[in-house]
Each structure stands twice: as C-alpha cells, then as structure tokens.
Amino acid sequence: xxxxxxxxxxxxxxxxxxxxxxxxxxxxxxxxxxxxxxxxxxxxxxxxxxxxxxxxxxxxxxxxxxxxxxxxxxxxxxxxxxxxxxxxxxxxxxxxxxxxxxxxxxxxxxx
Amino acid sequence: xxxxxxxxxxxxxxxxxxxxxxxxxxxxxxxxxxxxxxxxxxxxxxxxxxxxxxxxxxxxxxxxxxxxxxxxxxxxxxxxxxxxxxxxxxxxxxxxxxxxxxxxxxxxxxxxxx
Lengths: 111, 114
Description:
The structure holds two protein chains of two kinds.
Chain A: E1 4-5, E2 10-14, E3 19-25, E4 32-38, E5 45-51, E6 56-58, E7 62-67, E8 72-77, E9 86-93, E10 99-101, E11 105-110
Parallel strand pairs in A: 2-11
Antiparallel strand pairs in A: 1-3, 3-8, 4-5, 4-9, 6-7, 7-8, 9-10, 9-11
Chain B: E1 5-7, E2 10-13, E3 19-24, E4 31-37, E5 43-50, E6 65-69, E7 75-79, E8 88-95, E9 104-105, E10 109-113
Parallel strand pairs in B: 2-10
Antiparallel strand pairs in B: 1-3, 3-7, 4-5, 4-8, 6-7, 8-9, 8-10
C-alpha cells in the first residue's frame, strides 16, 4: 500500500541554523509531492511542491530535494527563525489531489 | 471571507449523537476536500467534490460518514451515531481544480465524542 513517513518526530534548532526535515515515501509511481506547515490550531499551509521530473526546487528560504532512487524527500529551511516553529508534513499526491500525508515532524526553533 | 471557513470550530457531543460540520470554500474554487486529522497524526483523505461530478467517497471510513455539497459552494460533513474514535479535527480544503492549484485549508472543526 501507499505510505509516506518521516524519520524524526521532533527537530530542535537554534535561530539562524539551517534545518533539514526528511521524509520517505513508498509509492514509486508517485509523481508529485508537497510540503505543508501546520501551526498550532490552524490548518496546513502550502510551502513548496516538486514533481518527479525534478530533483530540486527552491523557494524563499526553502529548498525541496527529491531522490527517486531511494524514495526520499527533504525540506531544507535556511536561517531558521522562531516563526518557523510548527509541524511539517510531507504529502504525496495519489491523483486528483487526494493527498497521503506523513505523520509530521515538529520543528522547534530556539531564539 | 478570503479563506476557507469552517464551523463549528469546536464541537463536543455524546456518543451516539449525529453531528454536522460545515465548510465554506474559497469563492471560485471548484474542488472541495474533507480530511480528518487525529491527534498527533497526519491528515487522512475522506472525500472530494469537483464541480458537478460524482464525489470521490473512497476515503470515508464507514457508512456513518456522509457529505454533501451544494453546487460549487458550501459543503456539510455528517457523522451519524458518533463513536469515540471519531474524535479528531476535520479539515476542509478547496482548490481551483483537482488537477491545478494548491489546496487551501480551513482551520478545522475539532470534534470530541464523549
């Protein structure tokens, strides 16, 4: 079956550090992946996406890397700020935006 | 409003009662989704609506769950004879279409079944 999982449930970093959040997926046919940020009491917020014909995509302070060989996805946040503290989910689009979400990684940023 | 609106934000009910959760999508968004998020977990797909097409109900966990959508507007998720395992946050999202655009999520309806 399909599954998307994360390696680290909690990541603690200092303000200004770079953060890396990892995700593994199992459906090798998946062709579209999304990272979401969820702050306490709020719905998930889109951060960045990547299609399987790419291995890297950059946004503002964020970079997503896709390694299809090992079915691994990562989110890199540069110069992490306290406002980045949240739970981050990777999600796999199984078609028609029916997303399969991982369990999430909590990012804690200390000032 | 500009975003996806959900109500109620919190609902506490007794086991066996029926509940209705409401979602107002972003105006002009033809696709509407319902997801469930149990405590400390990721989101589980429940159902989606796209225009006038038949909804995809493949994620609904049991026949106690149903949803309706009026045209390309409001949707209601109904849970009949609620059970304690139904306790979760129910999130609604909308997008321009099922093939285009990101999903915009509401803040969710937190359901607690006692």
